[in-house]
Structure formats: structure tokens, C-alpha cells
Amino acid sequence: MRDPTAAVFTGPSLSIEEAQELLELPALVLPPIQRGDLALLPDTVRVVLILDGVFHSDQAVSPREVLLALRDGIQVLGASSMGALRAAELEPFGMVGIGEVYDGYRAGELQSDADVALLFDPDSKRALTEPVVNVMHMMECARDEGVIDDELAKCAVAVARRLYFGELTYSRLFLRLRDEGVGEQLEQLTVFVENRQADEDLKRKDALAAVRVLNKVRAGLAAPGA
Predict the structure, then answer these.
(1) Quick one: 34 and 80 in the same domain?
(2) What is the Cα–Cα distance from 117 to 106, expressed in whole angstroms?
(3) Is the dihedral of CA 36, 41, 47, 49 positive or negative?
(4) What is the pLDDT of residues 156-174, one digit of tens each?
(5) Which residues pair with 97 in a beta bridge?
(6) What string of DSSP letters covers 146-170?
(7) How does DSSP assign 81-143, residue by residue?
(8) Are 53 and 60 in contact (CB under 8 A)?
(9) Are 46 and 68 a contacting pair, CB within 8 Å?
(10) What is the Cα–Cα distance from 60 to 81, expressed in whole angstroms?
């Protein structure tokens, strides 16, 4: 591969293999970002896309690290998960946000990292639980298509927020809803989720949109030393 001009940090939102296939410029495709990773990138990298990152520990990439990269002339894009959160925080300083998750943070509908956090396999980086933001999107889709009413949609999101992110799955969510006496619409909701879960993965949708944006900016990347 030629010297990379871009770097993408991904994992649960979009697999490393799929990102590599979709990218149209020489890029490093790396696991979820953690503290210190930006400083280790080669000097040829002039644009960074952050999708996934480590949460809930002192290893999370800090806003200061992103600010330092921006100060050094690196274009930083964010979407889907950690990237969307940091982009909403750092938009005034030049970080570019992409997608619905970013829009949710910017509008205040999403407010903490708990809304996008999930548990993933450390080897495959495959998601093992469901983030709250995906549940929110799924309930909106089910409500808009008449599968459930607004009351159940709001109740499901509230229950999802109460569950620890490492335990949030649709099966566990439906059990909790049944325990709370919500049963009348659960059967049709269960079928709807089974049929639409892959298509309505909001973090994945945003990741794909962000990769398309990254491919479009490739023409504006200066050659090393230019």
C-alpha cells in the first residue's frame, strides 16, 4: 500500500474488513480508538475518521488529543459512536460530524456516552450488545410503521436506558418490558425487530455514510510535502 493519507478507527459499527473494501484512498483501518492512538499515526495521514472508540475507562481518546490533531492541520471526522460524541463536543474547533447519531448529540437528544456504548468481542470487534441509540431508532421505525404505539416506543427506550450497556440486548429488553406488564404489542414488535435489526442498525448506517464522505475528500488531500 502507498503511504496512507487517511486513518479510520472502527470495529463494531463497521467491520475493519468492510471498511478496507469500501475505502478508495490509501488508508490505515484500525481498531476502536483509545488514548494515545492519534499521536502514533504516521505523518502522511492528513485526515482521520473516528467511528468507534473505547469507553468507560481512562483509555478513551480525549478531546485534547483531537484538538492537538486539528491544530496540526489534520482533518478529523466523526460519526456513529465515539466519533459522533467527540464531533458534537468539538465542532466549534473544526471537527466535522456526520450522521444521525452526531445530529442527536448536537441537538441534545443524546447526552452521554452510555447512549452509544456497547459490549464487543475483543478479537472480532463484533457487537455483543445493542446500543441505546439503535433501540431508539428501531422503536421510532416500529412506531412510524404502526407496529407499536407511541407509549410503548417511549417505554422501551426508557427501559433500555436503565439497563447496563453490557447487558442490553433485544431479548433482555423484551423480557423487562413483559415484566413491567407491557405485553399486548410485544409479539409484533419482536417479529419486526427480527426482520429489521440488520437493516436498521443506525451506527452502521452512519459509518457507511462517513466512509462515503471520506472517499469524497480524498481529492483534496495534499501529497506529503506539498
Answers:
(1) yes
(2) 17
(3) negative
(4) 999 999 999 999 999 999 9
(5) 78
(6) TSS-HHHHHHHHHHHHHS-GGG--H
(7) THHHHHHHHHGGGT-EEESHHHHHHHHTS--SGGGT---B-TTT--B-S--HHHHHHHHHHHH
(8) yes
(9) no
(10) 12
Give the per-residue pLDDT at 220: 55
Total of domains in the chain: 2
Residues contacting residue 125 through CB under 8 Å, at least 6 positions apart: 10, 11, 12, 15, 16, 31, 32, 52
Please give the residue range of the domain that contains residue 169: 132-202
Residue 212 in any domain: the answer is yes
* Residues 6 or more apart whose Cβ sits within 8 Å of residue 94: 70, 76
Task: Give mean pLDDT, residues 181-197.
Answer: 90
pTM, to two decimals: 0.92
pLDDT digits (tens, 9 = 90+) for 7-63: 999 999 999 999 999 999 889 999 999 999 999 999 999 999 999 999 866 699 999
Q: What is the pLDDT of residue 1?
A: 55
